[in-house]
Structure formats: structure tokens, C-alpha cells
Amino acid sequence: MEDIQFVLITGLSGAGKSLALDYFEDMGYFCVDNLPPVLIPKFAEMCMQSEGKVSKVALVCDIRGRDFFDQLFESLSALEFKGFHFEILFLEATREELVRRYKETRRMHPLKENTILDSIDKETSLLSEIRGKATNIIDTSYLNPHQFKEKLSLLYTGSERGKYLQVTIISFGYKYLVPTDADLVFDVRFLPNPHYVEQLQPLTGENTQVKEYVWKWPVTGNFFEKIEDLLMFLLPHYVREGKSHLIIAIGCTGGKHRAVVIANELFRLLQDEGYSPGIEHRDINK
């Protein structure tokens, strides 16, 4: 049970719960919106029975559930009784900012009191008890979307640099075309080509002999240092701008030797820097 990260998102209407749920999804959480509180214990049991397939869960439960919301404390008590660990994230904003947001979107407040302010005040009162039990409280009044995402990353990934950025590295051959979804493309066709060395030609960049051949040339090390400098500059800026997925493509002529070697080294570099990259050698067997 302790292996499951379970976050209950609640708070004032218009404070950013839907946006927060999108960000949690980017961070790899299984997300559910507007789950009736009475179903929370059963949902938690299903997550525990998933055999590790569901390890991080974020769900929104708020005043939209109306009468069901009164059962929230009973459901949370049931979770505690079963030894299930959970955190409560409470989102709020100033009355003025909430009014501005409602006027801007032209949406009705779910409580539908006489005025927006009346609805906000009533909701604030109704949620005061759950706010008092919150693990984390975020005032979104003065946060832009990127700042909001970074704040959530700091709280729920334990990383000051927002390492929830998903990086995928793809090696490919130019003769089979550049990956259409690549964000960054590095052409390594200028490196000495193992293809023209008879004993290396049938091997791939996964083979030690090929790796040693590619790395024995000073130009390879010089090139990789420049890639490292560039990426260590770019990645934090991508995170700051709210990018959640980055695809880096490394290409050589056939995608079998040089691109594979460089992609593998880049994979190890990003792991050492605290990211959790994925890697695909698209054309290695062609």
C-alpha cells in the first residue's frame, strides 16, 4: 500500500484543479476527475490489486459532487483505517481572482448562489475543514501555468529541476527518413563510418568493437561535449516553459552504427543527470 502515491486534489472552484490534473497526468499519474467520495475506498482497493500497474494516482474530488461531498471524511477515514497513505492537495485563490476567472470564462459556479461572490464565500466555508487537513495548500492567484506546473513538480517529484520531463532518444538512418515527431535532430554522418571497415560492417553500435571504433576519433568526443553543453542548457528551459515530452533524434546514414553509439551515450548522460530517458534504435536491424 505504501508503494502507491495517492493524491487527492480538492479546493475552490476556479482555482485550477483541472489544470493540476493535466499536470499530474504529465508526471505519470493515473488521473480521475470528479470521483464521488463514496467510491474512493473501492477505487483505492482496485489500485492496490493492479499488481503494480497503477503506482501513482491523482483524483479530483470537489463540491461538484454536492451531497456526495459530505461523505469525503468518512471515505478518508476508511482509507486511514486500512493503512492506505494519501496526501491532500488543496487549491485556492483570492476572491477577486476567482471572480475574474469566472467572468473571463463565463462559466457558472457549481453552487449557483445569487452572485459569484456568494457562491465563493459559501464554498470557502464548506471546504474549510478539508483545507485544515490538507498536506499541501497552493494559492494559484499569481501563478502562471508554467509556474503552477513547476510548483507541483517540486512537491510531487522531489526534483528542483522538474525532472518529470519525459525524454525519448531515437537513433535512425537518414536513408529511412527523419522521425517526423523529433524535436531535436543531430546528424552524426560526419563521424568516421564503421560501415567501411570489413569486420565491423555486419555489427551494430551495440557491439563493443563498433563503440571503440567510433570513440577512438577525437572528433567524436569533441562533438559529444558540445551536445552535452547544449542539452544541459536547453532541458531546464524546456521544463520552465512547461514542455512535458522531448524527442531527441540521432541520425547516421543507415541508423546501425554511429547513431546507435551516440544515442546510447546520450542515454547514459541523461540518466546520470537525474532524468529518466527512454531510448529506441529505430533502424538498427534494417
What would you note in describing this structure?
- The protein is α/β, with parallel strands linked by helices and 286 residues long.
- The protein has 2 domains: 5-156, Rossmann fold, CATH 3.40.50; 166-281, no CATH class.
- It has 10 helices and 9 strands.
- It has helices spanning 17-26, 40-48, 72-81, 95-105, 116-126, 128-132, 145-156, 208-215, 218-240, 258-272; strands at 5-11, 30-32, 56-60, 87-92, 136-139, 166-173, 184-187, 245-252, 278-281.
- It has a 5-stranded parallel beta sheet with strand order 2-3-1-4-5, with helices on one face.
- Strand 2 (30-32), helix 2 and strand 3 (56-60) form a beta-alpha-beta unit.
- Helix 1 packs across helix 7 (145-156) and helix 4 crosses helix 5.
Whole-number tally of structural domains: 2
Structural class: alpha/beta
Binned, the helix content reads: 25-40%
Q: Could you describe the largest sheet, including whether it forms a barrel?
A: 5 strands, parallel
Summarize the structure.
This protein has helices spanning 17-26, 40-48, 72-81, 95-105, 116-126, 128-132, 145-156, 208-215, 218-240, 258-272, and strands at residues 5-11, 30-32, 56-60, 87-92, 136-139, 166-173, 184-187, 245-252, 278-281. It is of the alpha/beta class. It has 2 domains: 5-156, P-loop containing nucleotide triphosphate hydrolases (Rossmann fold, 3-Layer(aba) Sandwich), CATH 3.40.50; 166-281, no CATH class.
Top keywords for this entry?
286 residues, Rossmann fold, 2 domains, four-stranded parallel beta sheet, 10 helices, alpha/beta
